[in-house]
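Subject: for your reference before the review

Hello V.,

The reviewers asked for a structural picture of the protein, and I figured it would be easier to keep everything in one thread rather than splitting it across files. Below is the amino acid sequence we used in the manuscript, unchanged from the supplementary table.
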Amino acid sequence: MDSILDFLVRQKKFALVFSLAFIAIGVLSVVGMQRDQFPAVDFEILAITTAYPGASPEDVEKSVTNVIENELLSVGGIKEITSTSREGISSIIVTLEADLKDVLTVKNDVRNAVNRVKSYPEEVTDLPQVFDFNVTEFPIITINIDGANGDYPLARQITDDLETALLKIKGVASIDKNGYLQSEIQIKVDPVKLDKYNMSINEVISAISTRNSRFTVGGNNQESLEKNIVILSEFKSIDDIKNVVIKSSFDGPVIRLRDISEVFRGEEEETSITRINGTKGFILQVKKNDQADIIRTVKRVRKRVSELQENYPDDINIFYTDDSSEAVENRLDIIIKNGYIGLALVLIVLGIFLSIKTAFWVAVSIPVTLLGTVFGLGLTGNTINLISLSGFILVLGIVVDDSIVIAESIHYYKSKEGNLYKNVVIGLKRVIMPVVTTIISTMLVMSSFFLMSGILGKFIYVLPVVVIFALGISFLEITFALPAHLATKKVDKQRTWFIPVENFYNRCMHYVLRWRYLIVPLFIALLVYSSFFALKNIPFNLFPTRGATVIFANVEAPNGSSAAYTENIVIEVENIIANEIGEDLDSFTSNIGSYFTNVANIEIALIPTNDRERTAEDMEEKLTALVANVEGAEKIDISLLRPGPPQGSDIEVTLVAENDAQRNLAANRFEEILNAIDGVNDIDRNDEIGKPRIETVLDFDEMARFGVDYQSVYRHLRTAFSGSYVTDVTIAGQEEDVRIYIGSNDYTENFIKNATVKNIQGNSIPMSKFSTLREIEGEPDYNHFDGDRSIKLTASIDDKVTTKTKTLSFALEELNLAVDFPQVSIITAGGAQESLDSLQDFLRAFVVAIIGIFLLLAILFNSYSQPMLVLAAVPFSLIGVVWAFYFHGQPLSFFALTGSLALMGVIVNDSLVMVSHLNYIKEKSAALEDKIIWIARGSRDRLRAVVLTTLTTMAGVLPLAYGVGGTDLFLQPMVLALGYGLIFGTVLTLILLPCMYLMNYDFINMLGRIKTKYSRKKAVV
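And here is what came back from the structure prediction:
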């Protein structure tokens, strides 16, 4: 072993090349590394959407949703199926089982199951669309084309041109168009002329669709030159459609479509309204490929749009919103700036305590490790994103700690007499085993994240990957390079100013160790008190609202309100938003009528937290007060989008039962409970009553007597009120639908009373002869969970008042489902359940990791009790975390937990090296000196390394904690936990641990005396 280490410390040229090589390949990797907002995550969720225009929720459920669900139930590997049948559309969400071995096969099975369904109603003209959810489905930038002040058709053409041009850009995968109405060929039939020529709407539709066709009738039966014979009757122009013969006879007039209708190119019906920054226009949402760099792709998109915009009129305003690359670039900039500041502070601290040369080589180990980790990430196909960046911050303290421990030990032994290289080897050997044990134990702890399930588990998978890579490269650096860098023949000038501090600490420890049986219980009491204090006063939120950059406003007008009426309310809310948020506003997008014409959703995007003084919570509070008095609105809810991976709503509870009455009663009761809890806002349920309905009640006996069939009635009314799809055509290379309408498509229910329908004999029969009208209340959406009817309730939580987990637990207890609603089952999801599940997964994995660490320490110390001394540092170090978060007014969160894990790595390292050194001193001095003297001296020997570790780690992370180089509220909890936990951990390592070591020494000696005494008695007997 000594010969190998002696060989390594002599290889200065190799060490230099080693360090430079890692820096070089790391720099090259950074230049070409893919940057993204989040890791590439497949949610393993499929969405199936089917349009059934004009159908009621019940009709959608029976004719579409149930049919598809029945096929899906035969597919293996599905965790759950949820669906919503609302007016005109069926939405089914298929969630796959976690950890499937062959996800692609199951997804294909789902698609095949959907494709097997053939028995759709006639009005379902488009096959169901199956969407695969993953991170790349999120748009990276939105391009808005405002044509309000210019030529609307020109703005539409510009939108098409931009879409075509942008799809050719490297990295762009697809583009979604919103606020864009597809053109269609519209046929407006004159009802008077229809009656004049004694024709039904069915005859018109049949004539048009039959005329637009193409047939291959076979070959020409010539062996020498075979050819296919085709009959072409497809429409090539609008005139072709106008000239379609609807009715003719041998000696009568020829009635063409142009004789009874107007045929022209129009636009599809506007069923929803989209507004950006207070104006209507066209919207292009750009999505990127999995492998595309978000920053470079957005830059290419902006550059191409700027080039094209030079040729557009000035009154066509084009602007950008929802640029995700800005958040990534901003976070990178903040971390890099704070990294420079932290590195400078680390150099200063190391230079003060050690020497300039030693400080330089320790500082070099930081970029070597971090850049080498970037190279490793690139090899494994990972990206630079929010989660991987947090991993780099996490590992910074551990990497610095390992380098300092090695450097300080070598620095100390270099100053002694004897062979330089042998002294360096001795210094390395003294601490290498504890350091290696720390590296392995930290890897074990971080591996706990691999066992976390759900979407959160997928998102943070890269976090332990970063830490494990960094620790592995750190081990190589401190083994192969750092000792050789420090093995210089010129003895560095030793810093002597710290010696008086060491002597003072040594004297203090004599008194502290004598009072050990008082000091240790005081620390235990502080730990117990801090734990209870944290449970009572510090909430736990997996991803709190701090650092939020998006606010949502949900606007509800009275039931049955038109989209235009709702838009007027939205305009007033938009004005309030613009005036209140002012310069802190990046953009706002309003979607009206996406599901119901009386409901609108406004997404308010704020500028980055680093560029504004006000928090999103303050703005949310102000907006809530201001919108309370908006006239015409039934309800306006303001809520925040929590930063981090998608979690759903804060509270998300699904009540499942086939018994409609019990399910509705349970939902009503749960809603009452949520309304009574302070801090619960934006309560919503997915079974709200839709628009009132006018029901046409048919008398089928009378219809049979008059010779009227149901399809004729349905088609006539459908064409009058909504229009009917006839066929599709391709004119000048553009594919368009052909739709037919009766009259101007603006009829009221009085039309039904006065309408006439052709019977099988061709006679006009008034509908009043066989039908009556009745007005009934609107029906709710029909929702399913695994095929059974369900109701889902959601709510958002104000973090200042309560927490998600506390609210969910209390509400479920109050509901008392098993007693009051025995036929109803409950499924919890959303942010609260995600927090509970993630925490449980993490704790289980953490316990396994602690057991693994104990086994490692048992091997190192060959002891049962000493590993407990080191592990005792873990709970005690969290005292500093608890009080830091309390005084900073922050909740414990996911990043607080990750910061605590990094803290644990540093504290375990310091404790392990301390215990190892005390064992070394014990072997040399226990028989010669009083135990207090040699333990105090051994503690003094480790003082400089422990203080150095604390100061350098704080110097590295606290600039980010307080935003010296820019504030990132999302990552701030992690560095707060690491920085302040380490301050208390230093006290723990320097005071509590020596006391516990001495108590353990006393205990072992006592056991030894008892054993000896017992052996003597046994020998006497």
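For the response letter, the relevant points are probably these. The mean pLDDT is 83. DSSP finds 32 helices and 31 strands in the chain.

Happy to draft the paragraph if you're swamped.

O.
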